[in-house]
């Protein structure tokens, strides 16, 4: 097919995908804002139900179409396989955004092995535990505080609400990703990693290399680079960056606070590129970490609090506008009841697992020192989850047995996590009758 | 490594598929699943269960409306194995975490699990409710009730109106969480408003049994249920009438019963409260209904103890009666009408024992609403004494549910 014809079909395919996404996800938002601007009901809000996973599978379809156009992948002739790629259930609802090139080979050549199945199951248990035990628990506090007026709950309520949300969204999102990657692994697919301990970041730039990596990669490769990337004039570079981050924001939800959230990160990344990075490089690492924590804390405030006026109120409350407690008491805010979970939430956000694995492996192999490594980026194929593997002959028999015992203890712990998670899922739907109905 | 992968995979798959296997085996009567291994015990814990009627929802309309999905959820929920154990254990784990979190603060009470509306008071080994918020709206609504009652009473000078206010824990100032919360409305505030609005009306009497300490409170109210026990009801009746309720001892036959009432069920925390009730003499009361509560039955203490589920999870209503309307004849004089919520059963037999006829309506109950008028009810029952029995919330919301009640 000629270049012009290929481009035509590319444009058609992209337009259809984006129109469908735009229609279902943004029709109400557009209608509301156009009507507000015109002062009359010019467009009817159709109150459309959002098809499950439309934000994710639309981007996956776009990656396929563009990669075929670019010649990076072969067009899939089998519509069932293409449908399977786009609607693959593990990552349909919450990602990661899997590119066709990631699984092109695996569609026809994947192998379902016992080792892969068990590895996937382990990762699934980790993800389930993160989602049910950690995210849902943190979410309990966030859900109780976020709908309230800032003046009602003051600094303590607003701070603890956003802090709870910070942990909730990380464990929720990364938990779902782990479950999706784990389920894919069970079926022989190696999906890319989506989160790489983002809360250990030292800058906004680094944060977005660790948070929702598949989304960042999508906007980099399919929006930013086609716009020219950074190989353009400074003003165009700024424009490209703000477009990408505006789109990133609006992709997350049809509301102005999501746009604001996206632009917030865009501005920060630009400021770091031009000014702040030079300063950060000279600061102690601890200061850089605190700087980044403040950034993503306020970022989540923009993300979680609905309504721009509420965002202003909540920001004011964080800076003490409504006192420590607003009109509430410390007890009734219930933030105190989560204090003993803070160490668990913090540790859960840190790369203690790869650190511990490296330490144990180094100990078993008689190495005195071992470097701290961050987690691998793709698919965990090189490092199976929750498993320490010693190269043959690299450790003594007693140490090999010790490592085996550690691996077994880990399996027992994962089984416990699975059972606990199942229990917590059951209890979350408990809705007793006050008066006996029998 | 291979063995480890095999064993781990088998165990996880067994855990994942065992509920479906259990369901299949028990549905086809291959095995009989004990109640603790099924969802049966959890139905008693929840105080009931929804029937899914799933067979009626297998159609496109039900799918589009979401009814099919809801029915599936209900059906799955009704068949989760070991559901009761799962509920209690997960609540217990969360409670331990909350208890640890409370160490630096030393609050006198804390939620029984994250998001629970029930609080545990370690000092009293008792459960109570989260204080009810909204002092403004409660005050206005109570004032509206009191004002309309006063006007109504003036129009019916030959009828005596008695307001008996029960000190439910969500409105009790003895609740340790009361002083820890803001914008809360107490039973005493309700009493004060009712007394103020009904002052100067001779045929209205407002009564509230004021208790002085938490330990005294839980001698008169259950530690695992939100109702008063027989001692509390009797003292409340005595506070109203000036007459001591006649009982001379505790019903010893109930001592084997360990109750876990509504607060335990909702709070997912079993305290195994020993049942302890006064031995009233209700032998002269005749009730025109088929099912007598155990307090009226010959050998009722033994019978309720044999009905283990009711004894444990619904002792108050099992012993004193359900919140269903009825009429009774008694050895006393006069015709009484009791308009109450679920606090009514505890006191209704004391009233019935002092009147010739007693009619009981549960119009104060949160689940009842209508367009009835009290004047019509008075005409039907020909009563000369009306008892409003309930907690502060019941009085505040009666007119929301019966807007024409005092018309």
Counted beta strands of chain B: 14
Structure summary, number of beta strands of chain A: 0
The general outline of chain B is: globular
Residue-averaged pLDDT of chain B = 92
Give the DSSP E fraction of chain A (strand runs of 2 or more residues): under 5%
Radius of gyration of chain A: 24 Å
Number of helices of chain B: 16
What helical percentage do the residues of chain A reach?
A: 55-70%
Largest sheet of chain B: 7 strands, mixed
Largest interface, counted with CB-CB under 8 A? A-B, 49 and 58 residues
Uncertain residue segments of chain B:
none
Q: Radius of gyration of chain B in whole Å, from Cα?
A: 24 Å
Compute the separation of the termini of chain B in Å.
80 Å
Low-confidence stretches of chain A: 377-381
Given helix and strand content, the structural type of chain B is alpha/beta
Oligomer: heterodimer
Number of helices of chain A: 17
Short description:
The complex is a heterodimer of chains A (438) and B (407). By secondary structure, chain A is mostly helical. Chain A has helices at residues 3-38, 54-70, 79-87, 89-92, 100-109, 114-145, 150-186, 204-210, 213-224, 234-252, 256-280, 285-304, 308-318, 330-333, 342-349, 352-364, 397-428.
Structure description:
- The complex is a heterodimer of chains A (438) and B (407).
- By secondary structure, chain A is an all-alpha fold.
- Chain A contains 17 helices and no strands.
- In chain A, helix 6 runs antiparallel to helix 7 (150-186) and helix 11 packs antiparallel against helix 12.
- Chain A is globular and about 80 Å long.
- Chain B contains 16 helices and 14 strands.
- Chain B has helices at residues 2-27, 40-46, 60-65, 67-77, 83-102, 135-155, 187-197, 214-220, 230-241, 262-267, 300-306, 308-313, 315-320, 344-353, 374-381, 392-401, and strands at residues 110-111, 118-121, 126-129, 160-166, 204-208, 247-250, 258-259, 273-274, 278-280, 286-287, 326-329, 335-340, 357-361, 385-391.
- A seven-stranded mixed beta sheet of chain B has the order 5-4-14-12-13-11-10, with helices on both faces. Chain B has a three-stranded antiparallel beta sheet with strand order 1-2-3.
- In chain B, strand 4 (160-166), helix 7 and strand 5 (204-208) form a beta-alpha-beta unit.
- In chain B, helix 2 crosses helix 5, helix 6 runs parallel beside helix 7 and helix 9 packs across helix 14.
- The chains are: A mainly alpha (438), B alpha/beta (407).
- The interface between A and B is large, with 49 and 58 residues.
């Amino acid at each position: 097919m000629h270049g012009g014809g290929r481009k035509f079909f590319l444009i058609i395919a992209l337009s259809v995908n984006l129109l469908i996404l735009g229609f279902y996800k943004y029709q109400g938002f557009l209608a509301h804002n156009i009507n507000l601007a015109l002062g009359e009901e010019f467009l009817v809000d159709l109150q459309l139900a959002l098809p499950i996973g439309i934000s994710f599978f639309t981007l996956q379809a776009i990656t396929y179409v563009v990669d075929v156009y670019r010649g990076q992948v072969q067009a899939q002739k089998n519509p069932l396989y293409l449908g399977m790629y786009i609607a693959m259930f593990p990552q349909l609802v919450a990602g990661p955004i899997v590119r066709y090139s990631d699984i092109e080979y695996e569609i026809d050549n994947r192998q379902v092995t016992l080792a892969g199945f068990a590895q996937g199951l382990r990762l699934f248990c980790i993800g389930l535990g993160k989602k049910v035990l950690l995210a849902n628990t943190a979410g309990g506090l966030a859900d109780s505080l976020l709908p309230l007026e800032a003046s009602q709950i003051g600094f303590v309520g607003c701070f603890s609400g956003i802090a709870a949300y910070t942990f909730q969204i990380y464990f929720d999102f990364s938990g779902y990703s782990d479950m999706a990657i784990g389920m894919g692994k069970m079926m022989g697919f190696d999906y890319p990693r989506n989160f790489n301990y983002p809360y250990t970041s030292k800058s906004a730039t680094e944060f977005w290399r660790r948070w929702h990596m598949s989304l960042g990669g999508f906007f980099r490769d399919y929006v930013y680079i086609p716009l020219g990337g950074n190989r353009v004039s400074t003003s165009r570079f700024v424009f490209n960056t703000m477009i990408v981050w505006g789109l990133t924001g609006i992709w997350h939800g049809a509301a102005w606070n999501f746009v604001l959230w996206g632009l917030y990160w865009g501005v920060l990344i630009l400021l770091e590129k031009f000014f702040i990075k030079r300063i950060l490089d000279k600061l102690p690492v601890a200061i850089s970490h605190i700087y980044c924590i403040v950034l993503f804390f306020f970022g989540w405030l923009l993300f979680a609090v609905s309504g721009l006026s509420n965002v202003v109120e909540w920001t004011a409350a964080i800076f003490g506008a409504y006192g420590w407690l607003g009109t509430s008491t410390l007890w009734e805010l219930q933030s105190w009841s989560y204090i003993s979970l803070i160490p668990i939430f913090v540790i859960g956000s840190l790369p203690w697992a790869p650190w511990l694995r490296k330490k144990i492996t180094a100990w078993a192999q008689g190495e005195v020192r071992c470097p701290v490594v961050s987690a691998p980026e793709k698919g965990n194929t090189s490092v199976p989850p929750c498993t320490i593997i010693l190269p043959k002959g690299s450790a003594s028999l007693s140490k090999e047995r010790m490592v085996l015992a550690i691996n077994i203890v880990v399996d027992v712990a994962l089984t416990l996590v699975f059972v606990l998670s199942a229990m917590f899922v059951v209890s979350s739907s408990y809705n007793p009758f006050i008066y006996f109905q029998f | 490594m291979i063995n480890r992968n095999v064993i781990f995979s088998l165990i996880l798959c067994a855990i994942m598929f065992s509920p479906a296997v259990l369901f299949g085996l028990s549905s086809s009567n291959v095995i009989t699943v004990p109640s603790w291994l099924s969802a049966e015990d959890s139905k008693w814990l929840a105080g009931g269960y929804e029937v899914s009627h799933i067979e009626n929802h297998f159609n496109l309309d039900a799918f589009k409306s979401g009814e099919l999905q809801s029915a599936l959820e209900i059906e799955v929920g009704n068949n989760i194995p070991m559901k009761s154990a799962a509920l209690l254990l997960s609540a217990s784990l969360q409670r331990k975490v909350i208890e640890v979190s409370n160490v630096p603060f030393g609050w006198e009470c804390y939620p029984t699990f994250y998001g629970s509306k029930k609080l545990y008071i370690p000092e009293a080994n008792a459960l109570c409710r989260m204080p009810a918020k909204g002092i403004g709206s409660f005050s206005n609504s109570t004032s509206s009730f009191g004002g309309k009652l006063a006007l109504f009473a003036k129009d019916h000078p030959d009828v005596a109106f008695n307001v008996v206010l029960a000190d439910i824990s969500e409105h009790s100032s003895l609740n340790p969480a009361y002083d820890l919360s803001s914008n809360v409305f107490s039973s005493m505030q309700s009493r004060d408003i009712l007394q103020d609005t009904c002052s100067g009306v001779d045929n209205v009497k407002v009564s509230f049994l004021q208790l002085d300490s938490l330990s005294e409170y839980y001698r008169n109210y259950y530690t695992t249920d939100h109702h008063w026990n027989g001692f509390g009801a009797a003292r409340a009746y005595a506070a109203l009438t000036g007459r001591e309720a006649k009982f001379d001892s505790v019903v010893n036959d109930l001592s084997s019963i360990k109750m876990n009432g509504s607060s335990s069920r909702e709070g997912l925390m079993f305290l195994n409260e020993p049942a302890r009730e006064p031995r009233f003499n209700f032998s002269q009361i005749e009730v025109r209904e088929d099912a007598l509560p155990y307090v009226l039955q010959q050998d009722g203490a033994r019978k309720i103890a044999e009905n283990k589920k009711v004894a444990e999870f619904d002792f108050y209503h099992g012993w004193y009666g359900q919140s269903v309307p009825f009429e009774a004849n008694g050895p006393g004089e006069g015709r009484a009408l009791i308009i109450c919520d679920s606090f009514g059963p505890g006191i209704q037999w004391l009233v019935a024992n002092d009147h010739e006829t007693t009619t009981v309506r549960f119009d104060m109950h949160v689940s009842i609403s209508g367009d009835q008028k009290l004047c019509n009810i008075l005409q039907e029952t020909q009563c000369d004494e009306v008892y409003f029995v309930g907690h502060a919330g019941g009085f505040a919301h009666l007119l929301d549910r019966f807007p024409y009640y005092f018309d």
